[in-house]
Amino acid sequence: MNRQRKSSNSNIFLSVYRLLRRRWGIAAFVIASLFCAYMLQESEKSVASTVVEAVTREATLLSDVMHSAKVKGELPTFIILGERLTYVGSVLQRLMVFASEKQEYAPLLIEPAIVEATKIYRESVSTLSIAVSALLQMKTLTAKETESLWFFFAVTSHALCAVMPEYFLAVDDFGTHAEALAKGLRLLMYASNMAGSNATGGRLPLVNCAQHGKETQWVNFCVSSFETPSSLEVRRAAVLEEMIALFPEYAPLRLHYAVSLAMSHQLIGTDSVISLINSEREKLSTRAHIDPHHDSFLSLCKAFVLSTTNITSAAPNVTAVNATDLQTVAHEAVKRLEEIATCNSLFRPFASDGNSSWTAMFRNAGRPDVIDKWQAMKLLSTMKTLKQQFPVGEEISDALPEGFANCSG
Predict the structure, then answer these.
(1) What b-and-e string marks burial along 20-42, b requiring 16 or more CB atoms within 10 Å of the CB?
(2) Which residue ranges run through the membrane (predicted)?
(3) Are 273 and 305 a contacting pair, CB within 8 Å?
């Protein structure tokens, strides 16, 4: 009997022990999980705090460099300013990525320290723009000045086309977001015009990106935008696409977008570009107050694309073009070119009588030219080649209309 009691007590103690061990194990697991979650949260807070501190610290240094550049007004100080901008812009982009991935940290973007840092960054970009304007007004540039100008183009474009739009979109400031893109587009047009002249001295890439900054965000933007003149076209197309998608008032830039895609179709995809041109032409009849040469320009774009590539894989609504079809497209394009008639209408085929519902100003920035000088040279050269290929006996001169004599000047 005593032996049975002892056995029973022993079983009870064993059961209690096992139960406690299980509960303690569960408790230990819960405590460990909570501790890990706490440490992870603290780690994320630490990362957020580190990034905010980095932005604040670098913005202070940037402010000092900016004031030095304003006072001295010398090229070396502006170069230093540009290099600081590449770093601060990249740090701001990293902060925005962090805030977008962790919604609870989105308020970081409107913290007073970050708002002030962004203000300093914008002011510094404006200061660098002074150097850009000064260099653009000079009749001749040394090799160093030319190299610096291209670097300044890249830094300012990074700010206006990437950093600022990303930040102001994240904080729902759509007006400033649109204004930055409009200014960036105008700057890219200046850069493209320079790329089409002898201002590069035949040097490629246009900017030695890694020489001026090692940050991934800066290098990726710079290399993808300033490798070649064609890279500039693709960047302009990307900016135009964002503007048109987000802001209905930018509908007039659809022609600019089509031209940018057509001129860089070999990088973007010929079939996609032809589909867009065909779609755009079909929709013109549904739009009121289109520009007088909108359809004519789309005709030129289609002829340019088809004559400078062979379409091998047809996309929906696109068929391979044989010699006869290309000749038909070419004849139409040449006729439309004669309607445009002058360089001014080629660069700005807009309504001049005020009879268009499309405004000439966007967010305090003027509507840019549809085509830059480098693109104009490519387009006109292709049109001339097409005329030369017309069948013998056709009463058509291979010369272009006189109004296009100085389009690249």
Answers:
(1) eeeeeeeeeeeeeeeeeeeeeee
(2) 21-40
(3) yes
Tokens of 264: 């860089």
What residues contact residue 222 under an 8 Å CB cut-off, 6+ apart?
154, 158, 207, 209, 213
- The torsion defined by the Cα of 224, 227, 233 and 234, in degrees rounded to 10, comes to -20
pLDDT at 66: 96
φ, ψ for residue 365, nearest 5 deg: -115, 130
Question: Among 338, 355, 357, which Cα is nearest to 346's?
Answer: 338
Indicate the pTM of the whole model. 0.81
Q: Return the number of other C-beta atoms located less than 10 Å from residue 43's C-beta.
A: 10
pLDDT computed for residue 40 by the predictor: 41
- Residue pair 228/206 in contact (Cβ under 8 Å)? The answer is yes
- pLDDT for 290: 73
Structure token digits, residue 191? 């850069």
Is residue 152 within 8 A of residue 135, CB to CB? The reply is yes
Element housing 361 (H / E): strand 361-362
What sign results for the dihedral spanned by CA atoms 101, 105, 111, 117? negative
Positions of the chain with pLDDT lower than 70, given as ranges: 1-48, 196-202, 288-289, 310-324, 351-365, 391-398, 408-409
Position 315 scores a pLDDT of: 45
- Phi, psi dihedral angles at 366 (to 5 degrees): -65, 150
* DSSP string of 79-100, one letter each residue: HHHHHHHHHHHHHHHHHHHHHH
Name the strand (E) or helix (H) holding 281. Answer: helix 270-283
